[in-house]
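Sample intake sheet
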Amino acid sequence: MCVRRFVFPYPLLLLAIWTAWLVTGDYVVLETSTRQVLAGRFATTTGEIMRSELGRGATRLRGLDVGYSYLVNGVKYTGLRYRYDDRNGAFDYKAVTCAFPPGSTQTVYYNPDNPADAVLSPGLNGCDLLLALFAIPLNVITVMVWISAIRARRDANRTAPAGGVQIFQHEGETSVRLADFSPLAAGLFGLAAAAFAAVFPLVFAAGFAPSLRLMFAVLIVVGAAGVAAFLWMARRHHSGRYDLRIQEASQSLLLPPAGGRKEPLSVPRSEIVAVSMHRRISHSPSGQHFSYVPTLECAPTNSESHVLDLVSWGWTEGKASAFADWLSQQLGVPFRGIEAETQDASPVIHR
C-alpha cells in the first residue's frame, strides 16, 4: 500500500474544487466561442446604437454596456450584446465604444430563429484562441494529476501480476516494458509545454488581442509539437529502448535508461544477487509522499554501482513489490523488499 501523510486532510477535495473551477471556465470559453462562430451565419439588419459605454465590475470598469434597437419583419427589438463574451478582460473596451457611438447606425447580426438573439460583432477573434492556448497546459496537468491519483488508489487496492507491466515473450528473450510515459502522455506533455512556452512571448509581442492569422499559426505549431512528442515516444517504445530484456542466450539483462543512465546497460545475470526496492520520500504542499523504485543488487565487479534502478519515476508500493517479486522469480534470486530510503525534492508521479 502506498503510504501518505497529508498536511491538508482533503487533498482530493482541493483537486476537485480546482477541477470544477477549471471546467466551468472551459465551458464558458467553449460555449461563447461556439455561439460566436454560429453568429457568423446570422441574418443582418441595420440598427441604431442607443447606448455605448464601459460596463462596471465589482471594483472597476469592466466589460461593455451597449444597447441598440433594430427591426426584423416590422417588429422592433432591443439588443444588449456586443459579443457573447462582452466581459472578456482582453478587449479594448474604449476602442469599441468609440467605434459604436450612440446615435450611429450599425449592422446587427440576429438569429433568424430567435430575432431577439443578436450581436454586433460575430465570429472568432484572436483573443478567443488565446484563451484556448492559456487553457491547454492547465487542462493537461489537471487530467494527468487525476490519472495519477486514480491509479495510485487503484494500485493500492489491488495487485496485478508483475505489477501490471507489459511483458513480451520472444524466442530466447523476455521483454518487460518499463517506460515512464506512454506515447499519449508524452504527446499531451509536449502539447502543454509548447502552449506554455508560446503564451508569454505571444502576449509580449501582440498583447491580449492578437490577430486570428497569428493565433492560427501558433496553434498549428503547438499542435505539431504535441504530435512530434507522441511520435518520438512511440518510436522509442517500438524500438524497445525502454524495455528490460532478459536474454537467455547471453545470460544477461539489458536494462533501460533509468536512475541517471542515459543509455541501456547490459548486466550479466551472474552479477545479480538480489532484487529489492528503494523507497523515496518527497515533499509537496499537500504533505509527504512515498514512492518505490524496483532495483537490482549486483555483486561488486565491473558495475560502477552495486544497486541499479530499473525506473526513473516512483511507483506505488504494491506495483513495485509485485513486479520486483516477479523479477526475482524470473532471475532465481531473492527478493529483499525495501532495502533503502532516499529523500527526493521532486514531486512523485505514481505510475
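Comment: Residues 243-344 form a domain with the PH-domain like fold (CATH 2.30.29). Confidence is low (pLDDT under 50) at residues 1-9, 345-351.
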